[in-house]
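Risk register update: the risk that structure generation would not scale has been downgraded. Supporting records follow, first protein first.
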Amino acid sequence: MPDKIELIATVLFAIAIVHTFSVPFFAKRAHQGGPHSGLWHAFSEVEAVFGLWAAILIIFMGVSGGLDSAVKYMDSRNFTEPLFVFAIMVVAASRPILVLVGSIVRYLARVLPLPTPVATFLLTLTLVPLAGSFITEPAAMTLAALLLKRAFFDHSSHTRFKYMAVGVLFVNISIGGVLTSYAAPPVLMVAGSFGWDTAYMATHFGWKAALAVMINAGVLTFLMRRELLIAGEHASEQNRADGDARPPVPWIVILIHLVFLASIVVFAHHPAVFIGLMMLFVGYCTAYEHYQDRLMIKEALMVAFFLAGLIVLGGLQQWWLQDLLAGLSPTLLYWGATALTAITDNAALTYLGSLVEGTSEVWRYMLVAGAVTGGGLTVIANAPNPAGFSILKGCFPDEAISPKYLFLAALVPTLVAAAMFLLPVQLLGNTGL
């Protein structure tokens, strides 16, 4: 039976989920003005939702059990992931990195036998999410979201197109990181205990994820090709009108930024190291600010705050979630994990599943496959999602992305991913997968 603190944490967790789906309501109230518009605006910031309710939980713990118990619980939480997302988002969103990635995408777009805007969109939703298996999913999300914003979202008033693009982006990022064993948070949480290396991930998950990524992006690109051409033309006209008076970014500056990015990825499990590297990076950018855009420190901090709140609240859900997972057959687990991921972080889900004893290889496969499949359904489902949400929300009405419409937009891409992960794998033998 859960204790009082666990019950309160679960109630607050449920309230935070409802709050997340209520963000558009608060955003509309904020835009209506009035003496409380600032408060409504604060409630409309989805990145603050879980941090707010986690703070209420910690205050309750301090009042009911003493300050020491609240501090002890906070000390028991591992905040490496929020800190890493903060650091990688700041570096990946810097101008030299975007110049490099944009140049690669534009070059490949010219090679493909498609109109440049169409090819650019297709590559942004395929190449960049799959690159997340190597540069990590948060970095891929940051880059893809910024590319979409600057090339299409800023130049289109088609809200339905934007929701469909965000739905595919979130799903493709979630599944695009499974080609390796270290880039996707839900895989990273269990790879060691399950004995899964990069070769295992590539043969059991990677090729299926690549197929789903290409199908999702290809279908959406075909359906939205006319809108892409219109947005691309508007973007070209805007670029010709604005120009860029700043000096071009030298290759040595781009190389230094890549070294910082790669170093932070390498030391992703050592916050003292990667935070130090990020501080050096900020100092370097300050010294050569004429090659930089504004660093996304505020946005990255808000995303980290969201993830930290999710960790604080999610850490007390084990009493019901682990037993629920343990009682499911592999098939039910697959669909159950896909659904549960929509209301809880998929890395927490796979971690709790890894604590269940006596599980088969098929059961483990279904757990992780379901967790990554459902990672695009909501903003809380996958750690990189708040980063994309933060970057793109200003392109939507009332500067808010409706969780309801995001869920609906991600549903079909999620089902495509689900079908791909149910394809058989020879290396698993006669398992029925």
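Supporting record for the second protein:
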Amino acid sequence: MTETVDVVLIGGGIMSATLGTLLHELQPEWKIVAFERLSEVAQESSNPWNNAGTGHAALCELNYMPQGDGPLDPAKAISINEQFQQSRQFWSSLVERGVLDAPSTFINATPHMTFVRGEKDVAYLKARYEVLKKQPLFAGIEYSEDSRVINKWAPLLMQQRRKGEPFAATRVPAGTDVDFGALTHQLFDHLTASGVTLRTNHEVRSLKKQKDGTWLVKYRNRIGRTPNEIKARFVFVGAGGWALKLLQNSGIPEIKGYGVFPIGGQFLKTTNPQVVAQHQAKVYSQASVGAPPMSVPHLDTRVVDGEASLMFGPFATFSPKFLKNGSMLDIVSQVRTHNLLPMLQVAVKNPDLITYLIGELLKNHAKKVDSLRTFMPTAKDEDWTLIDAGQRAQVMKKDPQKGGILQFGTEVVSSADGSIAGLLGASPGASTAVPIMLSLLKSCFPEEYPGWEPELRALIPTFGEQLNTDAARAEESTAATAATLGINV
């Protein structure tokens, strides 16, 4: 007989690891099986070299507080910060419970900065600072137009900078660099040690709803291609760009109208100790005109396996694959009658994006280092090498007013009965994995959720609260997690 389990997790990234950990803490008796098509977990978007490792808290990312015609609105920035605080609290609880290793193995204190040039952007950054400095979750944000101050914060930004050029920077010392690959590995290590089954080199091929309400999950071992199947009461599809294909295969009506647009990326990387020693920050700026928000240029400190390096980018690339290890037919095989029109409308309405992608594809190594020199005027070609980052499958979907829209965020798609759910989209993704999964638990497990709330509150002390409305509570919470995670500044 076909084995029946409580939960099947598809994909071995930070999302499945987070959901699996939450469910195991809440229902330790449930039987959970996770599938990963590659030989180990965290090899796609969760891999530390496939993302920038920014603990997205809207401290430096301007796209969470865009400049419009009216007054600057901090609501989105505050929301992102609130979500990241939940992730910090969850990780802190897992450190205290011995689930995670020493915090320095996956998170390190790294100031978050924003650096802009030109009178218009300087005026905008100052206005943004004036709004955010009043918000409790942004306490400690600093602003300067003084080259001596900015040089102290990040020397590489100021060396050989042209005189008379308007520039400004903000800095939040309490920022972080996160190795989501290490975090994912540690979460799965704990899960497997606690009885959760992880099947690597196993690819899920189809999902079919059964009359008894369970899902028949057909899969095969990629070594030998042996087919098999399993039944599950609940299925989570956390397979990056592959999630769309599996959700389409499931036949749930909620996926109709969705498509994804794959955008790859590259970063320039240096391990030159003389260069690395001069920069201890993640420095973001404004995206180019017509460029998607995920392309915002930034010069980052990275700490992976205890070794510091610098990364600059991203530079967009294009591949029809939805994953780095996907199929060249992915972009075509997603097409259905219900999503063709929205996807065509996205193509027609975003000519700037197409122009941007073509321009990026034409850049050689020298041109990419030239782009770096807008941040770091002293950059030398020989110090920097190009590395390929992960594929990002940006959501395209129907919109009642616009017909079809391109969405730069994350979105959970679940069936009406809550028996299956999947995650589409990209940034801020990993940084907000905990609140995303909490929202999924609430919508997919309505009967169990009320009984879970006490344990969720134990894991996340401010669960159900808004930190930014209470300055004292915000300070108390951030100080507590900083102490546990070893990221005091």
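The mean pLDDT is 93. On this basis the risk owner (M.S.) recommends closing the item.
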